[in-house]
């Protein structure tokens, strides 16, 4: 069942979203050459506890994982793109790190992700990250009241394909609100003017993720970490978004992060860590 949220409830989600956005921005700054992934994980645990928030990942046990997750972050490095288990790994120069987190405050959840390069970036990695960010902004712009869910999916896929990347259809965005994962599923590719109507009060996590040279994935033996099937680099961007009568409202926008607009796919302007 899909629950449409009131303006007051969206406001409560926005409180959580602000915290998630601020912490993600902070974690992006913590990530650096020589930093252990577990240091980033424990930094996030401290911040969540200080805020009185709850991690949506801790004890998360879906059908595909070997749960419970028992971490507050997904930290995915290089060819890992989703659900990366924090572990004893020291970041190296040029590593591409995706950080994904979801938290709840007073019963209302928000979910967001970003990808950064630590140290010296490869232009191809920056371009891949930019593609996910541009696809995310296109998906957000398409989340207009009265539109269709397929408009969001089509906008994401159009940007990805314009950059020359293929889209995996197994994992995508999702509804969010009282829990981290609610209906509907939000695919990263689709057909415009198809699917459910986007009514004010709908809250969704939009999350394009891409592999550099494939749309196939594989799972690590841990049952969680998802990697590109061919070992190519990956990137992931995500925001929690509310559909309102006035248009889409991003609830997890990070402080100081500019709103990106689609550009020439041949150019790259994505930041590095």
TrEMBL record:
<dbReference type="InterPro" id="IPR036005">
    <property type="entry name" value="Creatinase/aminopeptidase-like"/>
</dbReference>
<feature type="binding site">
    <location>
        <position position="100"/>
    </location>
    <ligand>
        <name>a divalent metal cation 1</name>
    </ligand>
</feature>
<feature type="binding site">
    <location>
        <position position="83"/>
    </location>
    <ligand>
        <name>substrate</name>
    </ligand>
</feature>
<dbReference type="InterPro" id="IPR000994">
    <property type="entry name" value="Pept_M24"/>
</dbReference>
<protein>
    <recommendedName>
        <fullName>Methionine aminopeptidase</fullName>
        <ecNumber>3.4.11.18</ecNumber>
    </recommendedName>
</protein>
<comment type="similarity">
    <text>Belongs to the peptidase M24A family. Methionine aminopeptidase type 1 subfamily.</text>
</comment>
<feature type="binding site">
    <location>
        <position position="111"/>
    </location>
    <ligand>
        <name>a divalent metal cation 2</name>
    </ligand>
</feature>
<feature type="domain" description="Peptidase M24">
    <location>
        <begin position="16"/>
        <end position="245"/>
    </location>
</feature>
<dbReference type="GO" id="GO:0005829">
    <property type="term" value="C:cytosol"/>
</dbReference>
<comment type="subunit">
    <text>Monomer.</text>
</comment>
<keyword id="KW-0378">Hydrolase</keyword>
<comment type="function">
    <text>Removes the N-terminal methionine from nascent proteins. The N-terminal methionine is often cleaved when the second residue in the primary sequence is small and uncharged (Met-Ala-, Cys, Gly, Pro, Ser, Thr, or Val). Requires deformylation of the N(alpha)-formylated initiator methionine before it can be hydrolyzed.</text>
</comment>
<dbReference type="GO" id="GO:0006508">
    <property type="term" value="P:proteolysis"/>
</dbReference>
<dbReference type="GO" id="GO:0046872">
    <property type="term" value="F:metal ion binding"/>
</dbReference>
<feature type="binding site">
    <location>
        <position position="207"/>
    </location>
    <ligand>
        <name>a divalent metal cation 2</name>
    </ligand>
</feature>
<feature type="region of interest" description="Disordered">
    <location>
        <begin position="247"/>
        <end position="273"/>
    </location>
</feature>
<keyword id="KW-0645">Protease</keyword>
<feature type="binding site">
    <location>
        <position position="174"/>
    </location>
    <ligand>
        <name>a divalent metal cation 2</name>
    </ligand>
</feature>
<keyword id="KW-0479">Metal-binding</keyword>
<feature type="binding site">
    <location>
        <position position="238"/>
    </location>
    <ligand>
        <name>a divalent metal cation 1</name>
    </ligand>
</feature>
<dbReference type="InterPro" id="IPR001714">
    <property type="entry name" value="Pept_M24_MAP"/>
</dbReference>
<dbReference type="InterPro" id="IPR002467">
    <property type="entry name" value="Pept_M24A_MAP1"/>
</dbReference>
<feature type="binding site">
    <location>
        <position position="238"/>
    </location>
    <ligand>
        <name>a divalent metal cation 2</name>
    </ligand>
</feature>
<dbReference type="GO" id="GO:0004239">
    <property type="term" value="F:initiator methionyl aminopeptidase activity"/>
</dbReference>
<feature type="binding site">
    <location>
        <position position="111"/>
    </location>
    <ligand>
        <name>a divalent metal cation 1</name>
    </ligand>
</feature>
<dbReference type="GO" id="GO:0070006">
    <property type="term" value="F:metalloaminopeptidase activity"/>
</dbReference>
<feature type="binding site">
    <location>
        <position position="181"/>
    </location>
    <ligand>
        <name>substrate</name>
    </ligand>
</feature>
<keyword id="KW-0031">Aminopeptidase</keyword>
<dbReference type="Pfam" id="PF00557">
    <property type="entry name" value="Peptidase_M24"/>
</dbReference>
